[in-house]
Write a structure and sequence with these properties.
The structure holds 2 protein chains of 2 kinds.
Chain A (H helix, E strand, L loop, with lengths): L1 H29 L22 H10 L6 H13 L5 E2 L4 E2 H36 L4 H14 L3 H15 L18 H38 L3 H8 L4 H39 L4 H10 L3 H29 L1 H4 L1
Antiparallel strand pairs in A: 1-2
Chain B lengths: L4 H13 L3 H18 L1 H4 L30 H37 L1 H16 L2 H12 L3 H12 L1 H15 L2 H8 L4 H37 L10 H10 L9 H4 L1 H33 L2
Helix pairs in contact in B: 2-4, 2-13, 4-5, 4-7, 4-8, 4-10, 5-8, 6-7, 7-10, 8-10, 10-11, 10-13, 11-13
The chains are: A mainly alpha, B mainly alpha.
Chain lengths: 328, 292
């Protein structure tokens, strides 16, 4: 059973990965008519790059559109295998270099937000479960569920308007103060944390309710189990029963969920980074879209998609490992 | 076998009477926004895309919510934007919900290879990271309202298909279906008399969920500059406002950015309240059928 599950999970991972690679390969080639005529169509009020004849030639050559389709696909795969994602037209650099420059910022806010939302969600869940059906529990449930319905980037705009525009206590853009001279590492860390604060807060809120509900509901289910009654009957203190017996079991799904949370936040980061002008790969993607920098767009998609898939794969594997009932 | 209008109204009234306070507020909110969308030409003095005032006028007698950078009335844009946002949301939800539902029912009813094909496709689509792919596909397809709808449908039909399939499978194995078939019921009759009435309420709840997902996703795409510039939804308004370079250093955000933001949040919250209450009202039925 265990072996079969594991193989099914890996099989699904490989298929999904192949689908993404295929989409990435086919998109510029499958568009109705000439894909590059749409590149000239603009979005109002942006820095528009209108295609010149020379650029069209360049793109045709770049994608090797004169070759037969299967040859194109194999050369595409070969490039991917070598880790070559092509050249960014806008930045005039290899795509993977551009991505590597921005990826750390995204990882920073996504991982911090994952940690914060998990810890805060668990704490709120425990408080809620212990006060089950009382006023505070009900208030938290309704409030947090309604809160979760606001998409994270709209929430981000609200936070931005309150803290950066109205109160002016947080910066409007960037990940570090430009041209800053740091007196020490501590100073630099403080500056980075100061800039990352609101994006991290926004992303944390996006996942908080999920963790909270999961913790609360599992705790409530667990607390009706026989072994909890046994623990109480043995004369153990309330605190020990909750932490050692109930919480330890209730945390299992929460830990498993963390992988999915990272994956979802990677997707959500695109919009949140755009709101805060935070220079991660999300903002990079927005800029690439505005500049119609197709190789870069595709490179970012591949990186984001693969990280999301890896996170989900990890979550599945961890679940199988951690839960003895499934691991068998 | 067309149900009478009175029956439908009675049933609706029955469902609504079981709503919580939030659900009723949500219903009123949605009704209000739908009215604004329908009567947009009567509620606003100007067409939304016409320059009717100075650039960035603050709210006043002529322009209740002021004007944007090109001098177009914001209140008109909100009214007509409601049309776009609702239209995109509902179009995606209906196509994805009904189409996905139909596929799911077919897969569940036919079984075998068709079932395998549909369900494996569903698996892959559910595993794909939707939003990054949405961005990239829309970027390649070009900004056009039908492309936006198409892309959103592509990523939202999987859930209704999966649920409709599992419902159909459960119903199909009931003794009364076998009995009906033995009495000579055709597949079409079974579908109309037994399967659709059971599956449809669940699809309806899903359609509400997809509507709010689609509105959210369209807003996100538009915010990134991937919306249709000729169809100004609330998301496109956010895009133009935030693309204005000094929006945060001037008081303009108060009447340019806040109204579409507030409208979107109100609409999404209302949809969520109604969706949740509907699900709760229909819950006993859902739980019963999920039992297998």
């Amino acid at each position: 059973m265990n072996e079969r599950d594991r193989r099914a999970i890996i099989f699904r991972f490989v298929i999904t990965l192949l689908v993404i690679v295929a989409i990435n390969f086919l998109l510029p080639r499958m568009m109705p008519g000439d894909p590059f005529s749409t590149m000239a169509s603009d979005i109002q009020g942006e820095d528009v790059i209108v295609m010149t004849e020379a650029q069209r030639e360049y793109y045709f050559h770049y994608y090797g559109l004169d070759l037969p389709l299967h040859e194109q696909f194999f050369s595409y795969l070969a490039n991917l295998a070598r880790g070559d994602l092509g050249r960014s037209i806008h930045y005039r650099m290899p795509v993977n270099e551009v991505i590597l420059l921005h990826l750390p910022w995204t990882l920073l806010i996504v991982l911090s937000a994952t940690a914060i939302s998990t810890v805060a969600g668990v704490i709120l869940g425990v408080v809620s479960a212990r006060n089950r059906s009382k006023g505070s529990d009900r208030l938290m449930m309704t409030g947090l569920i309604a809160f979760a319905e606001i998409p994270s980037f709209l929430l981000g705009i609200i936070l931005l308007l309150i803290f950066c525009v109205h109160l002016q206590i947080f910066p409007l853009a960037g990940a570090v103060t430009p041209f800053a001279h740091y007196t020490g590492v501590l100073d630099q860390v403080r500056d980075i944390a100061y800039h990352a604060f609101l994006p991290v807060l926004t992303l944390s809120f996006a996942q908080l309710t999920g963790v909270y509900l999961l913790t609360r509901n599992t705790l409530i289910t667990v607390s009706t189990k026989d072994y909890i009654r046994t623990a109480h009957a043995k004369g153990l203190g309330d605190r020990i029963v909750w932490t050692r017996h109930a919480l330890r079991n209730a945390l299992l799904p929460v830990v498993t969920r963390t992988g999915f949370v990272i994956g979802m936040l990677m997707g959500g980061a695109v919009l949140v980074e755009s709101v805060f002008n935070y220079p991660g790969i999300g903002l990079l993607l927005r800029n690439a879209v505005v500049a119609r920098d197709y190789p870069l767009i595709q490179g970012i998609l591949l990186v984001v998609a693969i990280s999301v898939l890896l996170c989900n794969l990890m979550a599945d594997r961890i679940y199988l490992k951690l839960d003895p009932r499934v691991a068998g | 076998m067309v149900p009478h209008l009175q029956d439908v109204i009675a049933r609706l009234r029955d469902v609504i009477s079981k709503f919580s306070l939030e659900g009723k507020i949500g219903l009123c909110g949605i009704a209000l926004i739908v009215m604004v969308a329908v009567f947009a030409p009567f509620l606003s003095a100007y067409p939304p895309g016409k320059i009717t005032g100075g650039s960035l006028e603050s709210p006043g007698a002529d322009h209740p919510l002021g004007t944007d950078e090109l001098g177009m009335d914001i209140w008109s844009q909100i009214c007509y934007g409601a049309r776009m946002s609702l239209f995109i949301g509902l179009a995606v939800a209906c196509i994805a919900g009904l189409g996905g539902g139909a596929l799911g029912i077919l897969a569940g009813y036919l079984g075998g290879a068709a079932d395998q094909l549909v369900m494996r496709t569903v698996d892959v689509i559910m595993a794909l990271p939707a939003f990054p792919l949405l961005i990239v596909i829309s970027a390649f397809m070009g900004p056009n309202i039908f492309n936006v709808i198409f892309v959103l449908v592509l990523f939202s039909w999987a859930k209704p298909a999966r649920i409709a399939r599992s419902q159909t499978l459960t119903i199909k194995n009931n003794a009364y279906i076998t009995a009906a078939r033995n009495y000579g019921a055709t597949p079409f009759y079974l579908l109309r008399r037994h399967i659709l009435p059971e599956v449809f309420p669940i699809l309806f709840v899903l359609i509400i969920g997809i509507t709010s997902y689609a509105i959210m996703a369209e807003t996100g795409l538009a915010f990134l500059g991937l919306g249709d510039p000729t169809a100004k939804s609330w998301g496109m308004m956010l895009h133009y406002a935030t693309s204005f370079r000094s929006i945060y250093f001037t008081p303009y955000w108060q009447w340019w950015l806040l109204p579409p933001l507030a409208a979107l949040i109100v609409l999404l919250l209302c949809l969520a309240f109604v969706g949740r209450d509907l699900e709760q009202v229909l819950d006993p039925r859902i739980r019963q059928n999920r039992g297998v």
